Amino acid sequence: MESKRVLKQSDYMRASLRAFYLQNGFNYGNYQGLGYANVLYPALKKIYKNNEEGLKEALSENVEFFN
Question: What InterPro entries has UniProt attached to this entry (predicted)?
Fold first, then answer.
């Protein structure tokens, strides 16, 4: 099975730049979960273009505890 690339090199670069703000959402409930979800948001939005429920589910999975 051949996989289709959804994300471009520029998407990875944007995610890397957004990672500088990872600590802004730090709290003791989920540590870096909020910042991590913020880093992934543009890429997830592109992956789940027309699937609003899939996007919500992916974001809620990535907001959970991350350290």
Answer: GatZ_KbaZ_carbometab (IPR050303), PTS_IID_man (IPR004704)
DSSP assignment of 33-56? HHHHHHHHHHHHHHHTTT-HHHHH
Report d(CA 64, CA 29) in Å as an integer: 9
Point out the residues of the chain with pLDDT beneath 70: 1, 65-67
d(CA 44, CA 54): 9
4 within some domain: no
The answer to whether 43 touches 11, Cβ cutoff 8 Å, is: yes
Is the pTM higher than 0.85? The answer reads: no
Which residues lie below 8 Å from residue 22, measured CB to CB, with a gap of 6+?
A: 32, 35, 36, 38, 39
- Is there a domain that residue 3 lies in? no
